[in-house]
Structures are given as structure tokens and as C-alpha cells.
């Protein structure tokens, strides 16, 4: 299982998540950041 990183869409905290998830919830501010995926892999958080 691979781990990826994205910045929270609200507070900009660096978040770690398992590849393949569609979103990740920030433990600091509870904002849910969507993970954009393309045929080439992870693009960025939105």
C-alpha cells in the first residue's frame, strides 16, 4: 500500500492518505479534501 500526501483544502495542513481513496478528512479542522485522480495517477487535492 502506497502513501500519498496532499495539503488540506482549508487550513493547508499536510495530510497523508492511502492511495486509492477519494477524499481525506483533516484531523485539525475536519475539512474534507477531495482527491483528484486521472488515468496518469494522482493529480492534486481539490
From TrEMBL:
<dbReference type="Pfam" id="PF06943">
    <property type="entry name" value="zf-LSD1"/>
</dbReference>
<dbReference type="GO" id="GO:0005634">
    <property type="term" value="C:nucleus"/>
</dbReference>
<keyword id="KW-0539">Nucleus</keyword>
<protein>
    <recommendedName>
        <fullName>Zinc finger LSD1-type domain-containing protein</fullName>
    </recommendedName>
</protein>
<feature type="domain" description="Zinc finger LSD1-type">
    <location>
        <begin position="8"/>
        <end position="32"/>
    </location>
</feature>
<dbReference type="InterPro" id="IPR005735">
    <property type="entry name" value="Znf_LSD1"/>
</dbReference>
<dbReference type="InterPro" id="IPR040319">
    <property type="entry name" value="LSD1-like"/>
</dbReference>
